[in-house]
Amino acid sequence: MGWTRSPFALFPAAAPVPNSPAPLLKATSSASLSISHIEHATIAPPPKRIARAATGASEELLELAANGREPVGEDELPVFSAAEVSAHNSLESGIWIVIEARVYDVTSFVGIHPGGKEVFTQFAGHACTWQFWLWHSKKHLEEWSSSLLIGRVDQPPPNPYPERKRWIKTS
User: Fold this and answer.
1) What is the pLDDT of residue 52?
2) Which whole-number Å values give the CA distances from 59 to 32, 108, 110, 136, 140, in the listed order?
3) What is the per-residue pLDDT across 14-30, written as a single tens digit (0 to 9) for each?
4) Are 130 and 159 in contact (CB under 8 A)?
5) Which own/partner pairs from 70-77 qualify as long-range (CB within 8 Å, at least 24 positions apart)?
6) For a 10 Å CB count at each end of the chain, is N or C smaller?
7) Residues 6+ away with beta carbon under 8 Å from 26
């Protein structure tokens, strides 16, 4: 008795194979499992990768996130202390976060962010550099920094979550 190979299971050759135009593989007998030839093979194309959503930084959203602030030039950025940044940890006082020693006021951005406000409430008044780079690219930061960047910090406040260890084999 021969066997037919199907993407679903192995069926006896006499049994109909669902959604299969012809037997894919035929064995010469049940005792020897050598394949005599391939009559027909259909190979499905690899699944298409789902592209990430665009950042969606339209002019209206950038203006809304800026909350009336004018963009600040790199040379004109004020320097904040860690205590000043830590004081801005709620919607009432404003939500400031630190990424790469730069301070961003994300108070108006909380309602726009696709991840929701919970992301910002966890890091309000703190540094969140490694978490930001885990989910975002440089393109995201460049696109939104003109609206959100308000200053720098010499000594950033601590990140509430330690960075995961990366093990490197040295020998």
Assistant:
1) 45
2) 70, 15, 17, 20, 14
3) 555 555 555 555 544 55
4) yes
5) 71/146, 71/147, 71/149, 72/149, 72/150, 72/151, 77/102, 77/149, 77/150, 77/151, 77/152
6) C
7) 2, 3, 4, 13, 35, 36, 37, 39
Q: Give the residues of the chain that fall short of pLDDT 50.
A: 9-11, 27-28, 50-53
Neighbour tally for 126: CB within 10 Å? 19
CA dihedral sign, ordered 153, 154, 155, 159? positive
| 14 contacts: CB under 8 Å, gap ≥ 6 | 1
- Give the other-Cβ count within 10 Å of 7's Cβ: 11
What's the distance, Cα to Cα, between the start and end of the chain in Å? 55
Going from the C-alpha of 132 to that of each of 81, 99, 117, 124, the distances in angstroms are: 21, 7, 14, 13
Helix, strand, coil: what percent of the chain each, to 5? 25, 20, 55
